[in-house]
Design goal:
The protein is an alpha/beta fold and about 375 residues long. It contains 13 helices and 15 strands. The structure holds pyridoxal-5'-phosphate. Pyridoxal-5'-phosphate binds next to helix 4.
């Protein structure tokens, strides 16, 4: 059996090597390393594939969030709702702009923001919500849009982990995550479902005015050469990364299917272990593209199981061991209503509980039957 890895990027590359090498060499030979043809070509194909009017490439998924917030003309002290069980990037981008992240608990079944707790977290200063589509599944966008509309809030979807996931509205309309709110952000970090060979990101929108602004902000606020209309930043997707992504984009659907197949095998193999764990919940109104396959381990056995699996050659990860309000960067100023950098918008007990119980199994496009069987067997033996 091949050694098991959390992700296996080199085997994935090997399957498209000829095509990839050709695309990469073309860029190197062109000498157009910045803003080469592949950048716009990839952006056009991406917007087409996800169903957004505009896709604006940038340097990474964190910049995408920051630029998205910059485009909304928020004022220092304005509040932005973010889920507490989350990667740091959204709250970080908010806080860096001197806006205040307001942390809201998540639904422990879906790991996504608990819609029922958003309304109480809104104050007169609240201007935006960042739903994060965590681990591959959409946040419940229909009620989120309703709350946003009722309160005049912008919606910026952090879609770093769920590209290609499809959300269904109650009237049957379907949209891909990242194209539902005002702006959607993407990360092409190598381990993402669509990953490049370095850093990369993009912003999606259907709004022409916002699209122009996002593009300008990502390019030093420059509207025409050496005219800087806005304060911006330098956030470019390299031509090389764009060329790599252009090769991989047509495979995204098959990559999602490969992940779904692994998840189905895990679900089946682990379904009887209800005393030990809960397999991930898949909600009916979203497809799941399994950027992560995350279990909840019961009875405080998570750390022990993780140690045992490591000894058996099965790597696992804890996404995330600390909730955002427990991060030193956010809690050093205190967490009461006067805190200049963060506000607790709801009880966060579900988030804190998840940080103690979640465990992500190896999940990637290259896991084979033998490896999956082995992983399941080891967990069965532990029980
Ligand atoms: C939910 C989420 N948002 C944002 C990001 C940031 O993306 P990047 O690493 O490309 O800056 C990540 C990356 O891990 C993420 O998982």
């Amino acid at each position: 059996m091949k050694p098991i890895q959390m992700v296996d990027l080199t085997s994935q590359y090997a399957r498209i090597q000829a095509e990839m090498d050709k695309a990469v060499l073309e860029v190197i030979r062109s000498g157009k390393y910045i803003n080469g043809d592949a950048v716009q070509a990839f952006a056009a194909e991406l917007s087409q594939q996800v169903g957004a009017n505009y896709a604006i490439p940038c340097a990474n998924g964190t910049d995408a969030l920051q630029i998205a917030l910059m485009a909304l003309d928020l004022q220092p002290g304005d509040e932005v709702i973010v889920p507490a069980f989350n990667y740091v990037a959204s709250a970080e981008a908010v806080a860096l702009l001197k806006l205040k992240p307001v942390l809201v608990d998540v639904n422990p079944q879906t790991f996504n923001v608990d819609v029922d707790k958003i309304a109480d977290a809104i104050s007169p200063k609240t201007k935006a919500i960042i739903p994060v589509h965590l681990f591959g599944q959409s946040a419940d966008m229909e009620p989120i849009l309703k709350i946003a509309n009722e309160n005049g809030l912008f919606v910026v979807e952090d879609n770093a982990q769920s590209i290609g996931s499809i959300y269904s509205f109650s009237d049957g309309e379907q949209k891909q995550t990242g194209t539902i709110g005002d702006i959607g952000t993407l990360s092409f970090f190598p381990t993402k479902n669509l990953g490049c060979y370095g850093d990369g990101g993009a912003m999606l929108t259907n709004n022409e005015t916002l699209a122009k602004k996002l593009k300008i902000i990502a390019a030093h606020g420059q509207s025409k050469k050496y005219t800087h209309e806005l304060l911006g930043c330098n956030s470019r997707l390299d031509t090389l990364q764009a060329a790599i992504l252009k090769v991989k984009l047509p495979y995204l659907e098959s990559y999602s299917m490969a992940r779904q197949k692994v998840a189905a095998q895990y679900n089946e193999g682990l379904k009887t272990l209800t005393n030990l764990l809960e397999t991930p919940c898949h909600i009916p109104n979203s497809t799941h593209v399994y950027n992560q396959y995350t279990l909840k381990i019961k009875h405080n056995r998570r750390d022990d199981l993780q140690k045992y699996l490591k000894e058996k050659g099965v790597p696992t990860m804890v996404y995330y061991p600390l909730s955002l309000q427990q991060q030193p960067a956010f809690c050093h100023c205190g967490l009461d209503r006067q805190s200049p950098i963060i506000r607790i918008g709801s009880d966060l007990s579900e988030t804190e509980q998840l940080c103690q119980s979640v465990l992500s199994l190896p999940m990637h496009t290259e896991l084979d039957e033998e490896q999956i069987r082995y992983i399941i067997e080891q967990i069965m033996k532990y029980e």
